[in-house]
Write a structure and sequence with these properties.
The chain has 82 residues and is mainly alpha-helical. The chain is 74% helix and 7% strand. It is flat and about 40 Å long. The mean pLDDT is 93.
Length: 82
Amino acid sequence: MVSLLRELIYIYIWLIFIAIILTWVPQATGTLATVRRVLTSVTDPVLRPIRSVVPPLRVGPGAIDLSPIIAVVVLEVISRLL
């Protein structure tokens, strides 16, 4: 049971990484846009609460969303505590 939970956590971490990479693709269309929407709907329930507490880090004219980094660290800690 514990190994299954760990595997699910690692799969979820990979989904977060893929979602991050897809945000760098400008104006995704077709299948890529669908994949992006699905990943967003799967990862947002974890990332949204973090975003509400931790604001984006301002870097020049842009900002860096720290929520995926925080989520991955927390998920990794949970996985190791199992």
